[in-house]
Each structure stands twice: as structure tokens, then as C-alpha cells.
Specification:
Shape: globular
CATH superfamily of one domain: Transposase IS200-like
Number of helices: 5
Strand order of the largest sheet: 2-3-1-4
Strand content: 5-15%
Number of strands: 4
CATH architecture of one domain: 2-Layer Sandwich
Structural class: alpha+beta
Radius of gyration: 16 Å
Distance between the termini: 22 Å
CATH topology of one domain: Alpha-Beta Plaits
Helix content: 25-40%
Order of helices and strands: EHEEHHEHH
């Protein structure tokens, strides 16, 4: 079995990617969006953190979270978000894929891939690349031609506060930034 080594920096900022099980394309459907928002809100109340940026793609989401000083528990937060989402999504009539025997033995449902990808943000330049990548992702996946046309990201919040112009993202802002999708 592979051993995954996570990087834990107290009070760190993390770029996270969670992918649906079997790459099922449902995260941008209304019930899934609502369940994910509620799950994140529940966990933010229990264990505060800042959602710096987020984008929902039909089969995955990218987010950048900033933790409070001294806190390293991004992994536990994301695990709980996925658990709460799964419970509420299935209760609301959401569908799952039949999990493998291994997943079932570990009491995991066929909604999310069991692991997630994490990148520890190193500095302000790295943070900008992460946030740009999050916001440009719908264009990368061919879901829209212009970033502003995609409704399920924090891009619009950034435009409101003047961080981006509305026409930002005509080309890939960080082509060297590698993120597994």
C-alpha cells in the first residue's frame, strides 16, 4: 500500500482538490451545490478556516483554504466536508456508484474518490498562482470561453473587490502550474 505524506504547516494555506468517485459529473447540479455549501459551512463553524477561493467543476472541485494560526487540520476538515456532503446528498436523493469491495470494507460510499490532492502554498506568488488556477479552471475544461461566464466559483467575488477585471483570463494565467485533475 502506498504511503501518502501530507505537509502540515501550522496556520498554513492549502490548495486542495477533491474528485468524485468514478469522475461522475454531478457537483454543479443544484442539490450537490447546496449540500457542498452546507457541509463547508458546518465544518467552518466547528473548525474555522477561510475559503480563499473555490471552483466547482462537474466532477471535482478546487479550493484554497487558509487555516487559523497554529492549526494544521486541513485534512480532517476536508474529510468531514466529504462525509457530511455524502450523507446529506444521498438523503436528498443523490445517487452514488457502487463502491469497490475495498471501499465498502472501509465504510466508504461511491460518491468521492477516497483521497485528495494537496499543495501547501509557499508564499504570496504561489498563492496568486493557486487562486488564478482555481478561477481559470472552467476555461481549461472547456466549460466556458470566458472566466466571467462561469457561475460556480469565487471569481465574481474577486471582481467585485477589484482583484480581477471582468475580462480577466483570456489566456492561461499560469501554464507552468501543474495540478492533477
Amino acid at each position: 500500500m502506498r504511503k501518502y505524506i501530507r505537509n502540515y504547516v501550522p496556520g498554513g494555506t492549502y490548495f486542495l482538490t477533491a474528485v468524485t468517485y468514478g469522475r461522475r459529473r454531478f457537483l454543479t447540479d443544484e442539490p450537490a451545490r447546496q449540500c457542498l455549501r452546507e457541509a463547508i459551512d458546518v465544518i467552518k463553524r466547528r473548525w474555522p478556516f477561510e475559503v480563499v477561493a473555490v471552483v466547482l467543476i462537474p466532477d471535482h472541485f478546487h479550493t484554497v483554504w487558509a487555516l487559523p494560526p497554529g492549526d494544521t487540520r486541513y485534512s480532517a476538515r476536508l474529510q468531514k466536508v466529504k462525509e457530511i456532503f455524502t450523507r446529506t446528498y444521498l438523503a436528498a436523493g443523490g445517487q452514488e456508484r457502487k463502491p469497490t469491495t475495498s471501499l465498502a470494507e472501509h465504510h466508504q460510499r461511491g460518491v468521492w474518490q477516497p483521497r485528495f490532492w494537496e499543495h501547501t502554498v509557499r508564499d504570496e506568488t504561489d498563492l496568486k498562482h493557486c487562486v488564478d488556477y482555481v478561477h481559470w479552471n472552467p476555461v481549461k475544461h472547456g466549460l466556458v470561453r470566458r472566466v466571467i461566464d462561469y457561475p460556480w466559483s469565487t471569481f465574481h467575488r474577486y471582481v467585485k473587490v477589484g482583484e480581477y477585471a471582468g475580462d480577466w483570463g483570456d489566456e492561461d494565467p499560469c501554464p507552468e502550474f501543474e495540478v492533477p485533475e
